[in-house]
TrEMBL record:
The keyword Hydrolase does not apply. The gene is Dper\GL11341. Residues 1-25 form the signal peptide. This is GL11341. The keyword Transmembrane does not apply. InterPro entries: Ins_allergen. Keywords: Signal.
Length: 215
């Protein structure tokens, strides 16, 4: 289970919230600064424990690693309301296509040699969402706030992107995409694989709210 030490799912969550890993050097550096203060060893331990004991978590991870996930994701990104949301993020994220993070996620997870041997089958009700919440709880919130505040004061691409995430227009676009008729089928597929999009969105907005309120 040491192969999960870098906790790719949790790091992916941080990437989406903080900077979407843009190609500009300063914004990419911002992301590295946030990842550097995350307790990755602790998150890796949590991920390993979930993978051993929680069938729903294993199923969610297996689905994200599959071609079926890519097909579902293509359906999501093709929806007009999602395209509008992506355009908004691209505009305030220095033109970087944020969807490339999700595009590359299955391949990144496939690179981790996840054990298929499960010594104990405990039918727990934990899943990807509860793992993300537990992982987020390990983050040093005070340090995250301080780093976000510092980067907002400094201005630059991160400050621009963070302000866009805090803007009410972002929430409007997210809500519109979430309730789009085009997304009902792919969202149902994700739900069947124990990936609760509503809960994940709530976690994202909670982390965004960790930062400075007065911009």
């Amino acid at each position: 289970m040491a192969c999960l030490g870098h906790a790719p799912i949790a790091v992916f969550l941080l990437a989406v919230v903080f900077s979407c890993a843009p190609t500009l050097a300063d914004l990419r550096g911002d992301l590295r600064d946030f990842v550097a203060i995350a307790p990755r060893r602790r998150i890796g331990y949590i991920a390993a424990r979930y993978y051993i004991f929680d069938p729903r978590f294993r199923q969610a991870v297996g689905f994200v690693r599959s071609d079926e996930f890519l097909e579902t994701w293509q359906s999501v990104r093709a929806a007009p309301d999602v395209a509008a949301l992506i355009d908004y993020l691209n505009e305030y994220g220095s033109g970087y296509d944020v969807t490339s993070l999700v595009d590359s996620l299955p391949q990144r997870l496939r690179a981790y040699q996840l054990s298929r041997t499960v010594p104990v089958e405990m039918m727990l009700h934990r899943d990807l969402t509860t793992f993300l919440r537990e992982a987020v709880q390990t983050l040093p919130r005070a340090k995250v706030y301080a780093l976000m505040s510092q980067k907002v004061r400094q201005g630059g691409d991160f400050a621009k992107f963070y302000k866009a995430l805090r803007d009410k227009q972002f929430k409007i676009l997210v809500d519109r995409a979430r309730n789009s008729a085009d997304l009902q089928a792919p969202l149902k597929k994700l739900h069947e694989k124990h990936i609760n999009v509503d809960e994940i969105l709530q976690i994202l907005f909670e982390i965004i709210n960790w930062g400075p309120q007065n911009l």
